[in-house]
Each structure stands twice: as structure tokens, then as C-alpha cells.
Write a structure and sequence with these properties.
By secondary structure, the chain is α/β, with parallel strands linked by helices. The protein has two domains: about 120 residues, Rossmann fold; about 120 residues, Rossmann fold (3-Layer(aba) Sandwich). The protein has 13 helices and eight strands. The protein has a four-stranded parallel β-sheet with strand order 2-1-3-4. Helix 4 crosses helix 6.
């Protein structure tokens, strides 16, 4: 029987990178997974939550819970930051509201990040993807530290045919995006970005792979402003290439 998952697309993919969403659906279909998309979904509330605006984040979280409570199965999120928000941020947001905390906890148990689901739930690493040349991988902060997901994207990339995965120096350092951090501390964010790009160049890889679109947007923008030819791609785009 084909498994059906619910896709939480995230604001950045929906607004700026729809091809990543399409790539992810293609990969999941190839893995024997059917994808549903609850059309009433909107922002999970993470930007407001991270800014300390709990009264603004709470209605967004409530709406997300209501939308996905009407569905069944795993909730799949192609972003470590949004997945961490729903899995852990909602529990903090509703810690003083027993009724909503119970609903948030029930939802959190259904949430998986994209690579986490493929490797840990479906037991898949080889998707017959092919990407000739070098690839470097940047582990985004929420994915690595918030969810503890690192082995999974690495296992998926290791199975990509014709790809040479090279180590990114100081790989665990933040790229500087950090959601509202890049807005509140633009000077620090810019310095983090410069260091990450310099380390990327040391790999001599033309492509940097990420699993979070915030990092992708930030890094690709930095490369463009510096006139660099390298590019940043989401892991779903790599896995979608045959």
C-alpha cells in the first residue's frame, strides 16, 4: 500500500523556490510515497516566535495545527528550521495552555524533515540520482543542532552516482542567515557569510548542497554579490536529477 504524506511547503519555497517543492514531490513519488498538500496552510509562525512576538506567533501556530489535524499520516517539511518550530517551538509556545499543548504535541509527533523521513522512516538512501562532479554539503543550524539531523543527508548524497562529496571546512559554522538574525545583526551576518563562502571556495566544488532554503537564499545571494560562479542547491534538487 502506498504511503501518503502531508506536505508543509514553507513560506520561502512557496514564494521563492517552487521548483524545490516540485523536486521533492518527484523524489517522494519515485520512492513510492504519495504527497497531499493541505491548501489552507500558511506560515508556521517561526519568524514572529524567534522575534519574541509570541502573541503574533500563537494564532499562526493554532491555524497550522487546525489545518493539519484534519489530515492523516506524516507531515513532511523540507526545512530544518520549520520542522524544529513545529516539533519543539510549538511545545514552548503553548506550555501554559494545556489544551493547545496537547494538540501541539500530537502534531509534533507526526513531523519529519525531508531527509530524515527518507532515511529513518522509509529506509532509503539510494534514489538512483546522478550528479556528475563535486558536491560540498552545508549543515544548516536548525537541522543539525535543532533536529540532530546530519547523518541522513550525508547518506543520501553518498549514494548519488558520479558525485564526489567533499568536506566543507568549518562546516558546522552558521552561514549568517539565522532567520531574523540577519536582519537584527546585519554586520555580523555579513561576516559569517563571507567566511562560509571562503570555506566553500576552498573545497573547489562548483556546488554547495543545503537542506534549508533560508541558507540557500542567503548563500546564493552572497555568491551573486561577490560575482562568484558557484551555486547553491537544495538536496531535493540533487536527488531529483537522474
Amino acid at each position: 500500500m502506498t504511503e501518503t504524506v502531508q506536505l508543509f511547503i514553507t513560506c520561502l519555497i512557496d514564494s521563492f523556490f517552487p521548483k524545490i517543492g516540485e523536486a521533492m514531490v518527484n523524489v517522494l513519488n519515485r520512492a513510492g510515497v504519495r504527497v497531499d498538500f493541505p491548501s489552507a496552510q500558511t506560515c508556521c509562525g517561526q519568524p514572529a516566535f524567534n522575534a519574541g512576538l509570541r502573541s503574533v506567533a500563537r494564532p499562526l501556530a493554532m491555524h497550522t495545527i487546525r489545518v493539519f489535524e484534519k489530515t492523516n499520516g506524516v507531515i513532511l517539511i523540507p526545512s530544518g528550521s520549520c520542522a524544529a518550530m513545529v516539533r519543539y517551538g510549538y511545545l514552548e509556545l503553548f506550555k501554559d495552555d494545556p489544551a493547545w499543548l496537547e494538540r501541539a504535541a500530537a502534531l509534533a509527533k507526526r513531523v519529519y524533515e525531508f531527509t530524515e523521513f527518507l532515511v529513518d522512516v522509509r529506509g532509503i538512501t539510494d534514489l538512483s540520482a546522478c550528479w556528475p562532479g563535486k558536491l560540498a554539503y552545508h549543515p544548516s543550524c536548525h537541522l543539525l543542532r535543532g533536529l540532530g539531523v546530519d547523518r541522513q543527508p550525508r547518506a543520501l548524497l553518498a549514494a548519488v552516482k558520479d558525485a564526489e562529496v567533499v568536506e566543507l571546512p568549518e562546516r558546522e559554522d552558521c552561514c549568517g542567515f539565522g532567520g531574523i538574525f540577519s536582519v537584527e545583526h546585519p554586520e555580523l551576518s555579513a561576516e559569517f557569510l563571507k567566511r562560509k563562502i571562503a570555506n566553500f571556495e576552498k573545497t573547489e566544488s562548483p556546488t554547495l548542497v543545503v537542506a534549508d532554503t533560508g541558507c540557500l537564499m542567503h548563500l546564493q545571494g552572497g555568491l551573486a554579490r561577490q560575482g562568484k560562479s558557484q551555486r547553491v542547491v537544495h538536496i531535493a534538487e540533487v536527488l531529483n536529477r537522474l
